[in-house]
Write a sequence for this structure.
């Protein structure tokens, strides 16, 4: 039995009104609060964090932001600091999502600073990595993944110290929002590569404990098969996390 508890995380991206997100989270709390075998997390937009925190109450559902700045405060117009996320009730933060990398020019260097800042502020980082279709077709997947891991975790790597609560998310860019899921074997192959990399760089304890989520067109119909793979520890769900009718069965994948 794996020591890693499965996590199902919903990344709502720039979607849902306050009313819609409150109603969705209330349904999740009612149907899936306090589930034993799975951790459930939601990542609403910044403006909904405090409201969703209140709706979550003591149900055990976890709250994440989708991004943050690496400084704790200062003259950074338009940015949100890790301290502010803690104040809003977040325990986790998604960092380096491919939409941030590709559309907002985030680099491994800034993701490294953010990862470090998240950890020192007491937030659990969910660090995203993943190759494009072009990179996969050129046979560069492992190289790209290794580069992203080395760059995004650079400071931690230098200190050889990765908190065991850290979460990694493998999201092949070509599978995000496209309806094209990586096959369970394709995803497992990369997850296994990441786990070996963790073993080589942070030791076997870290490799055994750190969860690696899969993201990219996860749906009620493919979650079970993905979760049957030994190195897939959960899912980071986009589109299907926006509606209770698709998110709840994903959370309850063990029961189907
Ligand atoms: P989709 O589930 O919509 O493909 O999005 C995946 C994702 O980007 C989660 O972070």
């Amino acid at each position: 039995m794996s020591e890693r508890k499965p996590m199902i995380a919903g990344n709502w991206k720039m979607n849902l009104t306050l009313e819609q997100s409150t109603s969705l989270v209330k349904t999740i709390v009612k149907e899936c609060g306090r589930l034993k075998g799975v951790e459930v997390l939601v990542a609403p937009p910044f403006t909904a964090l405090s409201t969703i925190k209140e709706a979550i109450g003591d149900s055990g559902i976890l709250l994440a932001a989708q991004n943050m700045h690496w400084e704790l405060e200062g003259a950074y117009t338009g940015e949100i600091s890790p301290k502010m996320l803690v104040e809003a009730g977040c325990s986790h933060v998604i960092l380096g999502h491919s939409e941030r990398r590709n559309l907002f020019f985030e680099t491994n260097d800034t993701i490294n600073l953010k990862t470090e800042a998240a950890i020192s502020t007491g937030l659990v980082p969910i660090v995203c990595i993943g190759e494009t279709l072009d990179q996969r077709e050129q046979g560069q997947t492992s190289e790209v993944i290794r580069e992203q891991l080395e760059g995004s975790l650079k400071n931690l790597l230098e200190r050889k110290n990765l908190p065991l609560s850290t979460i990694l998310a493998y999201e092949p860019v070509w599978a995000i929002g496209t309806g094209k899921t990586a096959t369970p074997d394709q995803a497992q192959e990369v997850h296994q590569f990441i786990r070996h990399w963790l073993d080589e760089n942070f030791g076997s304890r870290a490799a055994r404990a750190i969860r690696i989520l899969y993201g990219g067109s996860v749906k009620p119909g493919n979650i079970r098969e993905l979760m049957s793979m030994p190195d897939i520890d959960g899912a980071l769900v986009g589109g299907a996390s926006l509606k209770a009718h698709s998110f709840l069965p994903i959370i309850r994948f063990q029961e189907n």
